[in-house]
Specification:
By secondary structure, this protein is α/β, with parallel strands linked by helices. It is 53% helix and 9% strand. Among the domains are: 44-125, no CATH class; 149-216, Rossmann fold, CATH 3.40.50.150.
Amino acid sequence: MANPFYSWQKLLSRVGLGKSGNSSFKIKIIKLNQKELNFEKKSFYYILLSPIFLLIALYVYLKKKIIPNPKYNFYFFDGASKLCREVKENAAKWRALDLTYNYRAEKNSDLIYDFFWHNLRNACALRNRLKLVKFLLIKNIEEVSKKENEVRLISVAAGSAQGVIEVINKVKEKGILVKGILIDLDPSALEYSKKLAQEMKNRKSTYFYKSNSQCDN
């Protein structure tokens, strides 16, 4: 079987993304200790229930064809669970991610519906991604701090910026100074970011920008 990474290197080099004078584009592969990062793995029952999920998706699709704006898509998701309903209503927004990242902290997180839906593979993947991003940010910040006295970090479409703020707080404990700039179109996301930064006591080292690039210190 051909090495997929070699195929990508060859393709990227053809479109001019390779290094000058080099016939291939180098892709850095990082080996991760999944146990150390404490990745969530809950795939068995997800695989068993996959046919049912497909039927649910078909049901919701047909339902929306008949009723354009139904009160709820699927009763046992956004009908019985307030948390799942809020995730649906905030789809593609920072709040939906925030609820998935921190669903255990919600008041109604003990409901069986919340537990079930927020332990599926897609929800676990979001939380695993947050852990991975934080791990890589810390690693890169530590590398830059060896050359610079101050590390500057910009997060575009930052959302709640939970990962960034937690990382700034963690590296500060190691004596590394980081100044973060968070940019987002949604003012509510930046307000939430300020709240997180204040709770973690790193407000002075984090700056918040609105979409019009007006600084709000």
